[in-house]
C-alpha cells in the first residue's frame, strides 16, 4: 500500500526533493534516509487505515477522522501524506478483520490453545512494531513521530478479534 501511495503522489515527492536542492551527495543521503524511514512509514500507513492515525511532529495527527498537520520536515517520503480527512479510508480496516479470519481459520484446526497462542503472539508483535515505529526526532517540534502505541495496538487487535470472533461463531454454528 505504501508503494502505491508513493507512486500516486510521486509528483509531490519529486517537488519536495527538488525544493531541497540536495545535490548529488545530498541526494544520495536523502535517498538513504527515506529508505531507512520506509518501515516506519509502512506502520504509519497501517495505523492510518486501522483508524488510529499517526503523528508527524508535536501537536499533529493524521487519521481518517482527524487531520491536524502543522509544520513538518521537508522529507520527500512525507509527500504521500493525505491532504485532508478521509473517513472512507476506514474501509482499510477490513484488511485487519481479514487477518483475524485467517488467523482463526489457520490455527483453530490445531485447537483453541493454538489459536489463543497465535492471537497473543500477533498482539505482542504489534506492540513491538508500534514501539519501533514511534518515538521522537532531534527537535522538540518532532517530539512525537509515528503511531500511538496503545491506540494502534488496541485498534488493530480489536479489528483482528472481530474477524476471529465471527469466524469462531460461524464455525461453531456449522458444527452444531
UniProtKB/TrEMBL annotation:
Please report the name of this protein according to its UniProt entry. Unannotated protein
Record field: transmembrane: 20-38, 45-67, 87-108, 115-137, 149-170
Per the UniProt entry, what species is this protein from, by scientific name?
A: freshwater metagenome
Query: InterPro entries under this entry?
Result: DUF6350
- Keywords from the UniProt entry: Membrane, Transmembrane, Transmembrane helix
